[in-house]
UniProtKB/TrEMBL annotation:
The keyword Hydrolase applies. Its EC number is 3.5.2.17. It comes from Gordonia mangrovi. Catalyzes the hydrolysis of 5-hydroxyisourate (HIU) to 2-oxo-4-hydroxy-4-carboxy-5-ureidoimidazoline (OHCU). The gene is uraH. Homotetramer. Substrate binds at residues 7, 42, 105. InterPro entries: Hydroxyisourate_hydrolase, Thyroxine_BS, Transthyretin/HIU_hydrolase, Transthyretin/HIU_hydrolase_d, Transthyretin/HIU_hydrolase_sf, Transthyretin_CS. Belongs to the transthyretin family. 5-hydroxyisourate hydrolase subfamily. Residues 1-107 form the Transthyretin/hydroxyisourate hydrolase domain. This is 5-hydroxyisourate hydrolase.
Amino acid sequence: MTGLSTHVLDAVTGSPATGVAVSLQDASGTELAAGVTDDDGRIGQVIGEPLVAGTYHLVFDTGSWFADHAVAAFYPEVDICFEIPDPERHYHVPLLLSPFSYSTYRGS
């Protein structure tokens, strides 16, 4: 399976972060795709076409999501920059989110 997926979890409540707007951008900042996390906090296929090897950004609109939940937060957006070395593989980029910190890792 090839492609790119993401998953956002609210680390404070241990719940999926439903309704987070996410933008996929290339290295120059051009938006390639956009979506919103589902009821499980996921976007199963961020873009409908294969990505070529290169550098990309997943930009999460965390400020709007926190505002919608009446939570004061420090990060209005999270920009995760990553590389796709092999377009024949699937890449999963999760985000663990809280009002004053976040973390990410390369998932499977």
